[in-house]
Amino acid sequence: MHKVACGVILYYPNKRKVISDISRYSTLFDKVVVFDNTDEYNKEIQEKLSEIANVCYIGEGRNTGLPYAYNSILDIVKDCDFLCALDQDSLYNSEDIHEMLGMLDYTPKDAAVIGPHVIYNGEDFVKSKKFIKRRYVITSGCFINLNIMHKEKIIFDENYFIDKFEVDLDMQFRKLGYAIYEYENACLYQRLGTVGKNGKSNHSSLRHYYLFRNRFYFNNKYFSPFKRTVLNILQTSRQLWNIILFEENKLLKLKQLPIAIKDYLNGRMGEYVY
Question: How confident is the model at residue 101 (pLDDT cuts 50, 70, 90)?
């Protein structure tokens, strides 16, 4: 019987919804750890969650970044076999969570991370009991094999703060010969960023800064000089064109690229400091 924990990251959450969600998760998982990244103490949430025996609420009264928050959760759930990672924007039905919990008994032996099928914008999807090997899955909703993490001494890379850290985690596993899977018989419904009138993402200028900078860091960490140069050019060009063609406040967002390049070259990682 696997012992499974759930880790939930909060950031200025809807208090009523979060309390309801965490209460439901507490009936499905052996342990629930809530890390609040909000810049102020949520006394109401803390008091309500303290009434639930298997829920632990932690936070530092500031936004520490997602990798730091998940690493803090990992320190608390060392006695568990799997961690289900979640955030407040995820809609994970109890039926789908039960399906994910049940599949842990017959996962592929090389599986380090197993994620559900993620549905954006209400797409149609037909479930099936298949494991599809992927290069990466998003962190929210995925089940991470903690025994492999401890054995290989893998943690979330806190240089990212946000964006690309989940891809980095999957890459760490893959470099060691493990695999990442999507389980097609469970779904997670996810809201992704801000969507403009044209249906395209409309990220903040700060989000674009992290996307630019963290891409350079990731590509440099894992790829040869030639490959990372090609990837940096292609991926950054795509991001620039998306800003120019589809997003608002174009000039402010375009100005993030030279700032991101400068900070990356000077080793300024983690949280952006104005």
Answer: very high
Flag whether pLDDT at 190 surpasses 90.
no
Go through the domains of the chain in sequence order and give each one's CATH number: 4-190 (3.90.550.10), 205-265 (no CATH)
What is d(CA 110, CA 54) in angstroms, rounded to the nearest whole number? 30
pTM score: 0.93
* Cα radius of gyration rounded to whole Å, the chain: 19
Tokens of 87: 């955030």
Better-scored residue on pLDDT, 40 or 69: 69
User: Distance (Å, rounded) from C-alpha 200 to C-alpha 194?
Assistant: 8
What does DSSP assign to residue 163?
A: S
Cα within 13 Å of Cα(251), Cβ side? 0
Mean pLDDT for the chain? 94
In the block, which residue shows the tokens 């044209």? 198
* Under 8 Å between Cβ of 179 and 127: no
- Look up residue 160 and give its two tokens: 């990212």
DSSP secondary structure letter of residue 105: G
Provide mean pLDDT across the span 180-209: 82
Name the residue among 49, 139, 135 with its Cα closest to residue 92: 139
- The answer to whether residues 160 and 221 touch, using CB atoms and an 8 Å cutoff, is no
3-state secondary structure of 211: helix
If pLDDT is split at 50, 70 and 90, which confidence band does 251 have?
very high
Dihedrals φ, ψ of 170, to 5°? -60, -40
Report residue 122's pLDDT band, with 50, 70 and 90 as the boundaries: low
Give 75: exposed, middle or buried? Use CB within 10 Å, 0-12, 13-18, 19+: exposed
Q: Tell me the H-state helices in the chain.
A: 15-26, 43-49, 66-76, 94-103, 146-152, 165-175, 205-222, 225-246, 250-254, 256-265
Which single residue is written with the structure tokens 């097609």?
A: 184
